[in-house]
Specification:
Strand order of the largest sheet of chain A: 1-7-6-5-4-2-3
Mean pLDDT of chain A: 95
Shape of chain A: globular
Largest sheet of chain A: 7 strands, mixed
Strand content of chain A: 15-25%
Order of helices and strands of chain A: HHHEHEHHEHEHEHEEHHHEEHEEH
CATH topology of the largest domain in chain A: Aspartate Aminotransferase, domain 2
Number of helices of chain A: 14
Helix content of chain A: 25-40%
Largest interface: A-B, 59 and 58 residues
Oligomer: homotetramer
CATH class of the largest domain in chain A: Alpha Beta
Radius of gyration of chain A: 21 Å
CATH superfamily of the largest domain in chain A: Type I PLP-dependent aspartate aminotransferase-like (Major domain)
């Protein structure tokens, strides 16, 4: 078992463990009784911290997973006859096994993008049929920050989308499973590119950035959507021992866990990018702005190195792979991996040139 | 804050924290990388432990909450046109905010019971309309062990319900949020009153008995229901860092946390029962067979003592209250509470006699 | 085939055909083009007629079936975390195969009644947990007029329920699949015991009373519930050739089809009641106030006469049967049936006395 | 009102009325009693007729609308974690207001096509993630025959899609709202391009081709999907007076109404196409193979002629319009319309040349 356990990799930032500071906070709140389901002082404190970060109108609700944060955040604001517009690479479209359709019963409409980022002009093909009862009504534009392609929206890009949404009587939703990585990249407070940029609903992720479990649905415009607490409960997302989620977010913000973790993983990604760019036969296909690297490499090389370092293929047709760094990625991980990869590519027939299309 | 934190009570067994052994195991698995979503060696081990406890045909899936365990366990086996028969006091009927209806879209049909326990003869009023397309088709009998009234089914009672279910082409589901308390009371291995007694689907609870979060859906008859993994994912119940749930169950079973915790809370309940029975003006209304005590007491007394010890009213019309003990309830908790209560009742006008109807 | 076709019976008022005046109106509108989906002049006219009958605030939407009228009427006003309170004999609970749970995903809570009619005092057991997120929120009281037991609410009874609902921030829904029969019995305009008595949502039925298909969802308090048109469409209840439903309702109201049909079927029910009361061994178990008769009779007798006259058992345990008259029931039907029944009962062992419990 | 009523147009084939032969059959079955909900001899006969047309393994279920036929046909075979692949112009994607998502809770994935017709090579981008629990599982390929663009699949094209589906453990669904038009165009029996070509599930439409209401869900491979009858009922699609739907289908097939109606509307479309092609400044954009014509024309011209002849814009950006002929379209309709259009275009500034891009 040890071998498997010790196997490092770049499969996902959720393959890493829990940051020690978070773990410490969990242990700290583990004394005495605390009323269940969020009526405890730790959860009060966590809510306050979110208001500090995102603005005093913020209403925050903790759930268990990023999928739940996205789906319930949307579900609090829309009905089954609405549609949500997103990039086809978005988590809500591609990685939640149809959870929006299952839980909200709405339609998800997608567009292709070169880099995982929506732009108003991409959306026009879905902006019709308003008021026409035969057609799902476009109601939310959903973006991911940082995106599933590792790219980061600028404040202006977000504002443009918010304006576009609001001028069409729609809302802007942000999937922030990796929000901290974007904050570090932009070097801005969270609020600057969420609440202040016009975002209405935010999923604020922690699990991929040093926490154990627990994500936050944030309604940024004041007031809880009517009935949201019931929706959370009946969607099986109300934690009984809530204090253990709250405690993590307290550490996350108050002890700057978010910054330390995201800063480190972003740095590691840049370092990995640098090393990979040195390898002829490996091609970086997306800008590296957070903790994801997309790269083409010869398939046989990928298969070989996968035996030691696990990561996922992104597009099998184009031999494109996704490498994620994490808060616990080490320089040694990167150097060992890159050294090995360089050797494998060098020895690979055709030097991998064939695949660089 | 300290005051509130230190406030002890009998509100629910989920107001307690995490057992140290469980916490230790969580820390133990928090090293290195582990593949997410359950494809890790800890989860493998946890699955094996469940098979040991419940039989080798057991298929176990971890989810976050007891509501999720119940709803998805049922959802794996039934369709929207089926009905689930339960006691009206059942958690699936009264405490899940309509989650079965929301997630499975099925009907929940209930019967009144004196003690929270179903018996075949209670169910006959719902056992009709089979094959009639206008009528939801009865498909599952759902019982809670221990029940929401603190009572425990004997093996024979469970077998009778299983036979009744199976002879009607139905299934027997058991909500085991407090299964350990029943196991201790019955002094039987889990298997004896679940798999071997004819139960088909089991929710195996840990959170109320020393764990932090995480419950288990157990299909006991071999084979995963078709598509269950997708149902779990789209129902937002697939944990990314699964190892932290699995680790808890490993400690739960391998270190006998379940037995220690449930044994203790059962004992505390018996001790509390004994003390309450000594108080004239307080009336125990249900058999104390697990860690719940139901008692009538004068309303003003209840309100007064609630300021120091929190617990919930069960039936406001009859001044009936529910007191739950927990793995961390102390003898001091009970003695202090009982002493205080005795004094309050004694000084209460009419000695509380009025309410004993 | 002729034999089967000619077989008369008392199975249901939907076993009858279409009233000639309705059929005539259908043919009358079957010329030229009419814009689909309700944007045609016939549908405009039908909407006006409803406003005349129920008040100018009425918003009416046509759907295909009574189940759809009930479910979408409720669905327009409530969310998945709400509960609907009804008699356990209600159509929404017993005869729609869980359609409210499937389509609205809400909870239906029931009470037993002696006569199919709700009374405020019956409901108290469900009137709790308001604001408590673990509990489905009671939001609608649903009654059937006439009831599934053939009984009719007085105006005062309806007002009492409306007051009770409104004082608890709830709504009153009326399933009027057989509303015309109640209007005739009460000898009141529809408005007097619906809009003016405090009903908020009404299903107005036509199919059981001379129409071919088509039922009406009526929101009586002004304004369409937000998004209702989309809900109807996505619930597959928007007719393309809407004029053919509208035409039926025009004839229904303007040519007094409703009164002629319901008056006749009510009269036939009274006549049948009279004849049955003369038969020793047959016991009428409910007041006959509309077009349903509930009667106990020896099982063998029922089985024998069922070969010629079809009707359904209501409660097999008590040998209770339901007989429905219709707009096309003839005096001959009743006399032939009653004569035959009298003979069968007379010749039945024990004279049927045994069953009169 | 007469003016409006007499206004002819090309808005949709559902703006026409009911064919006299169908109406006659409706009147014919309107005598005596018939057991409700489909247990009547007319429905038996209608089921037989479908078996004759589509093969003896066919299981047919009547519902009210084309949306219902599509959604329940799919719903009988798939679960919420499945995805359905279709053209983005498909009715299930664009014109059902998210009904598949609402009722089946599944995902609909789309591809762009030049002519409304799917081809296997278009689908590859969605054919991945099989067995991966994070991804909705592709389960059905859905095509429309004739397509929403008026084009018709050949038998070979259907077979290719069926083979592609089956080799991926998927099913082929056909939306046959306008199946008769395709049958006439192909000059083939229905069976040849449905059952025999590998289609698994078929929506067989009648309303757009001379019927009043009622569509058919046809499972072509033998056996009813488990529980389908309950799904239909709880989805509010079980007609009580079923004989009136059945009767229509009897006339539809036995009196060749389908052929007469579809043949006529196809002919009228060809005639209209011919006339439009003569008008310089009007451009036909799709092959005319059934009863739809897609044409670009100057916007002002379209707006002007719309005052007399109603039809819908298809794509406002490209000034493309959809014209549908119907079973009751007359040569006079076409000649009057075309004459008028020719004059309007001629007098239009720039002769409309500008818009032909």
């Amino acid at each position: 078992m040890n071998d498997i356990l010790n196997k490092r990799g770049f499969a996902s930032d959720n393959n890493s463990g829990v940051h020690p500071t978070v773990m410490e906070q969990i242990m700290k709140v583990n004394r005495g009784h605390a009323v269940g389901y969020g009526d405890d002082p730790y959860t009060d404190e966590a809510r306050s911290v979110f208001k500090e970060q995102l603005g005093s109108d913020t209403e925050v609700f903790f759930v268990f997973t990023g999928t739940a944060a996205n789906v319930l955040g949307l579900g609090g604001m829309i009905r089954s006859w609405h549609s949500v517009l997103s990039a086809d690479t978005s988590h809500i479209n591609s990685d939640e096994c149809g959870s929006p359709e299952k839980i909200i019963n709405c339609k998800v409409l997608t567009v292709e993008t070169p880099d995982g980022k929506l732009r108003p002009e991409y959306l026009s093909k879905h902006m019709h049929g308003f008021g026409f009862e035969h057609h799902s009504q476009p109601k939310v534009i959903s973006i991911s920050q940082s995106s599933e392609m590792g790219t980061v929206y600028t404040v202006d890009e977000i504002k443009a989308l918010a304006d576009y949404a609001h001028s069409n009587d729609m809302l802007l939703h942000m999937d922030g499973a990796r929000l901290s990585n974007a904050a570090v990249y932009l070097d801005l407070p969270f609020r600057a590119f969420t609440t202040d940029a016009g975002v209405d609903i935010l999923s604020f992720g922690g699990t991929k950035n040093g926490m154990m479990y627990g994500e936050a649905v944030c309604f940024l415009r004041g007031g809880m959507p009517s009935g949201f607490r019931y929706l959370r409960k009946q969607s099986m997302q109300l934690a009984s021992k809530m204090r253990f989620i709250s405690a993590q977010y307290i550490a996350f913000f108050k002890c700057n866990v978010w910054k330390e973790c995201a800063g480190h993983s972003n740095n590691m990604a840049k370092m990995l990018e640098k090393r990979l760019r040195e390898i002829k036969g490996v091609k970086i296909t997306q800008k590296v702005e957070s903790n994801a690297i997309f790269a083409q490499m010869p398939r046989k090389v990928a298969q070989e190195i996968n035996k030691e370092y696990f990561f996922y293929p992104w597009n099998e047709e184009t031999d494109e792979y996704r490498l994620m760094t994490s808060w616990d990625t080490t320089e040694e991980d990167i150097n060992t991996f890159s050294d090995k990869l360089a050797i494998l590519v060098e020895n690979s027939p055709g030097d991998g040139e064939a695949l660089i299309r």
